[in-house]
Design brief:
Elements (H helix, E strand, L loop, with lengths): L2 H18 L3 E4 L4 H13 L4 E5 L6 H14 L2 E5 L3 H11 L4 E2 L2 E2 H11 L7 E3 L16 E3 L3 E3 L7 H10 L25 H4 L25 H4 L1
Parallel strand pairs: 1-2, 1-6, 2-3, 6-8
Antiparallel strand pairs: 4-5, 7-8
């Protein structure tokens, strides 16, 4: 199956989701998978609601790329952030450490940021892929959590993503060309050249994530708790 054939299936699932559920948002990190997902979803519904989580620790390159893409593509976008009370509580708990209980502080900020709003929706659309990690290998196209989670590109692989980006001439996050194979917040994301050979290679794709914890190369906790 070609990336374009996979794209047709993904668009059909997005269309079905938007028809079935009245309150839906698309989760966007501005990484490569989100970039493809945004392109697919806006081709179905140009004003689809798109949300990103700003933990307060994003790469400046992420915020710059986000602002450029939002303006250029006229995206219906909003940032989700933890409340000041959430930030104070988490800061006090972590103290001088940035890692506690095997979790980065920036990752901890994501949970209240999304939990504060998710009850107002019926479903969310994510860019999870099965080939990214062991945890994600059984990702379903539709899953039930606090709300319905729809994963339209779950069956795509790393090469499909980059082929689609290239073939459709999509703008993408500049840090991929600097050796980051996977992108998150700045504190919990490291370059992955030694593990993957560069940001455009697929091997050990998330190797640079969450170093110094038992979750290295795996999950921040967002998709295990929502």
């Amino acid at each position: 199956m070609t990336p374009d054939e996979k794209a047709d299936i993904s668009r059909a699932l997005i269309k079905l989701t938007l028809e079935r559920y009245p309150r839906v948002f698309l989760a966007c990190s501005f990484g490569k998978d989100s970039r493809v997902l945004v392109d697919l979803a806006t081709s179905v519904k140009p004003d689809v609601e798109i949300c990103g989580i700003d933990t307060g620790y994003e790469f400046k390159e992420t915020l710059e790329f986000a602002n450029e893409l939002i303006e250029k593509r006229n995206l219906n976008f909003k940032w989700l952030r933890p409340t000041p009370e959430d930030v104070k509580r988490i800061d006090e708990y972590y103290g001088d450490s940035f890692i506690k209980d095997d979790q980065y502080k920036c990752c901890e900020m994501k949970i209240p940021a999304i939990n504060n709003v998710i009850g107002g929706y019926d479903a969310w659309i994510t860019g999870l892929r099965r080939d990214e990690t062991e945890f994600r290998k059984n990702t379903g196209l539709i899953e039930q959590g606090k709300i319905v989670k729809v994963n339209p590109i779950a069956f795509w692989n790393h090469d499909d993503i980059w082929t689609y980006i290239k073939d459709h001439k999509l703008e993408y996050h500049p840090l991929y060309d600097k050796g980051y194979p996977s992108l998150g917040c700045e504190p919990c994301t490291k370059e992955g050249k030694n593990q993957s050979g560069g940001g455009r290679q697929g091997k050990f794709e998330r190797a640079g994530r969450f170093t110094g914890t038992g979750n290295q190369g795996q999950e921040c906790g967002l998709h295990t708790m929502v």
